[in-house]
Amino acid sequence: MRRRQFFALGLGLAACASGCATAGGGGHGLGPVGVVPGGERWAPVAQALFRTLRRTGYPATGTGGATTVTVTGLPALAAAELNDQRPMHVATTPLARLTGNVEVLVVPANSRLKDFDAFAAHLLAQPERTYLAGGPLGEPDHLLFGLIAQGLGVDVRKIDYTGYPGAQEVAAAMQGGKVAAATGRLRDWRARLDSGRIRPLAVSSAVRVPGVEAPTLLECGVRVDFADWCAAVGPAAMDRERRGAAVRMMEEATRSAPWHEACRNGGWEAIPLSGDDFATWLATESARTRRVLRELGMLDTPSTTYRG
Fold it and tell me: What pLDDT digit, counting tens, does each position of 261-278 carry?
């Protein structure tokens, strides 16, 4: 398939891998720490991390420094796979997982799909006639539908998925009868859920979300724990000493009161994981993403059904 649509996100990861300088020293062994977003979507988290580092005593800047930390996430990881680039855990130095956005599976309020079991039965019986929607192709919403289909034993290449720019366009398609079910970040659908215009069938987190009357996918028998996450990475060339200092910095920052306050204010779930544990998790996440992209027909073969 053509991969031009994923080029911008892939460039962000490539720039981090090749252009993040790490010369210099400082009181923490890092020198001035530049915190930069890997793309516009990660700018709020990058800004929150910058402020947290300043409040916890690190000489953070909003631009490049002696040590540059890039805030990036799942869409960039998927874009690297689609653009045939090195996986994120190889192209960068993994430092810490930061935040995640829980995803929700929704249907119109008047849908005949009364619960997740009804949705699953319909998808199993008629995957090509269960019209699904969410964000752009290859991004978290699409990946989640692929994982759900995998978990149910559905032939993933048969699912019919349309990618839209955002939740507003998905909601309009749903109201127009073009979409049977959609996935998206819970925060983007909360107002419509509260209004009763749509119903939640399941959430992607490992535990239920307070205030949302829906089970987890795990409770529904689908072995998926999923979030639209973002993380902090350094350049691939980081030496062991500087990496250790950067990981300790991230651990201090993500344990701090300012960081938890920033997560509450931003509506993000804090999902801290750092150092070697994060690097191992990231490699696993890369492999999972690669598998589902392949089953969706977006790697190696054009045989899937999708629009957008």
Answer: 999 999 999 999 999 999
Residue with tokens 């629009």: 307
* Ramachandran bin of 254, using left for φ above 0, alpha for ψ from -120 to 50, beta for the remaining angles: alpha
Residue 263's contacts (CB-CB under 8 Å, 6 or more residues apart) are: 48, 99, 269, 270
Q: pLDDT tens digits, residue range 13-33?
A: 544 444 443 333 344 678 899
Q: Is the dihedral of CA 154, 283, 297, 37 positive or negative?
A: positive
Residue 277 backbone zone (phi > 0: left; psi -120 to 50: alpha; other: beta): alpha
184: nearest Cα among 134, 139, 147? 134
User: pTM of the prediction?
Assistant: 0.87
Contact 216, 205 (CB under 8 A): yes
- Name all domains of the chain by residue range, CATH numbers in brackets: 4-100+228-294 (3.40.190.150), 101-226 (3.40.190.10)
SS3 category, 285: helix
